[in-house]
Design a protein that fits this description.
Protein name: Mechanosensitive ion channel protein
Main location: membrane
Distance between the termini: 117 Å
Number of domains: 3
Number of helices: 7
Number of strands: 8
Mean pLDDT: 81
CATH class of the largest domain: Mainly Alpha
Subcellular location: Cell membrane
Structural class: alpha+beta
Low-confidence stretches: none
Family: Belongs to the MscS (TC 1.A.23) family.
Keywords: Cell membrane, Membrane, Transmembrane, Transmembrane helix
Order of helices and strands: HHHHEEEEHEEHEEH
Shape: elongated
Strand content: 15-25%
CATH architecture of the largest domain: Orthogonal Bundle
Largest sheet: 5 strands, antiparallel
Length: about 270
Amino acid sequence: MDEEIKQVSESAQYVTQFLIDNGAKIFSAIFVLALGYWLSGWLRNLLLRMMEKKGMDITLAKFVSGCVRLIILMMAVLFAIAKFYSISPLVALLGASAFGLTLAIQGPISNYGAGLMIIITRPFVVGNTLTVQGQYGQVKEITLAYTQMENEDGEVITIPNKHIMGEIFINSHECRIVEGVIGISYASDADTSIEAVLKACQGIEDVTQDPPPQVGIDAFADSSVNIGYRCWVPTKTFHATRFKINRAVYQAVQDCGADIPFPQLDVTVKK
């Protein structure tokens, strides 16, 4: 028991002496870290407000302001360490280990590089509709590592940036296109049917008028003339609007008196 008390007493004396000898350094290091943390946050918010007022893309604004904050925080940490040790060996060590670290984290680095290209070149921005890797959705967030999209069902799709910049992707901005075909008999009036389908598409509330719906003869099938239609609709209501369009087109063709033929197959039996 006496031995344990003696060890605790010696430890307390050592800590007390250390605080006495290095109290000023500890206080100044804490002050530098606190000042750096406050200054980096304040400057980031200031830059973000200034860039938003100038109409800069929100993703690029967040990236620039975030980089500025990270640089200030790193400088504050280095200054705090310099209060106790010389940072020259630390800088040399970081430089020597950078090459090996790069090889170990090639995947994340490639994502960051692709993310940086997306932020700088801006082939798409938040709010655009993106189709890539068989997935589609509205872009909700762009970071250095990944891009997040959300589809009509509320599903959040996260795609690493290297799988976007290295692939062919489609940016249809805020909308997607609805394409469909309905067949009428060869005896029906094609012009009347096309006009009816066009009015039906234009009558749907969510169908955009710029660009306007397109309707025309899509193909000449074996037993029908296929009327094709194309409409741009908001991504957020893509499937719901597509169902409305198909129903309106079907009703319009019936109302205009056109016949919707069944597939027919003529079989000749030779005796």
